[in-house]
Amino acid sequence: MSRVALKPLLTIEVVKGRILSLDAMHTQRAGCAQVHRLGGEYVLIAKDNQPGLKEDIADLFEDRTPDCRRWQEAETWDRGHGRLEHRQITCSPDLNDWFAKTWERIEQVFRLERTVRILKTGETRHEVVYGLSSLS
Fold first, then answer.
1. Distance in Å from the first CA to the final CA of the chain
2. C-beta atoms surrounding 81 within 10 Å
3. Cα 8–9–13 angle (5° rounding)?
4. Closest CA to 83 of 120, 132, 54, 51
5. In whole angstroms, how far apart are CA 25 and each of 39, 56, 114?
6. How far apart are alpha carbons 79 and 40 in whole angstroms?
7. How far apart are CA 37 and CA 15, in angstroms?
8. What is the pTM of this model?
9. How does pLDDT run along the chain (136 residues), one tens digit per residue?
10. DSSP labels for the chain?
């Protein structure tokens, strides 16, 4: 869905009390502000359309020297549809002050790592994505 197609859906009836999980195309400062004004929350992916954002988040998780005690981690393993998937997420509030002026109501950033193994062939895919959320 394009940004133009999403805009009419951002109404109080659709957004209030809901969590919007949006693709990188929709990771836009104005969209975050509008979701917040309408009473919703967001989970957004940072990719190459926001290179500074993605790099700042990646740098945080690559440098394990900050006080990581506030970081939270979780992982899941799923087997089905001929594959084994491992997902591991690490979340941190450490960039909130850094991003607060430009990303309204940011509460945390995250690093999500996915490893998928196709059981029949043994082929493995690995992906790391970064994002931000208004959820604490």
1. 27
2. 8
3. 120
4. 120
5. 21, 18, 20
6. 33
7. 9
8. 0.85
9. 444 556 667 778 888 999 988 766 667 777 878 888 889 999 999 988 887 999 999 999 988 666 678 899 999 999 999 999 999 999 999 999 999 888 889 999 999 999 999 999 999 999 999 999 999 9
10. --HHHHGGG-SHHHHTT-EEEE-GGG--HHHHHHHHHTT-EEEEEE-TTSHHHHHHHHHHHH---S-GGG-EEEEEEEEETTEEEEEEEEEE-TTHHHHTTTSTT--EEEEEEEEEEETTT--EEEEEEEEEES--
How many Å apart are CA 122 and CA 102, to the nearest integer? 43
Q: What is the β-pairing status of strands 19-22 and 72-80?
A: unpaired
Task: Confirm if 10 and 39 have CB atoms less than 8 A apart.
Answer: no
CB atoms within 10 A of CB 2: 8
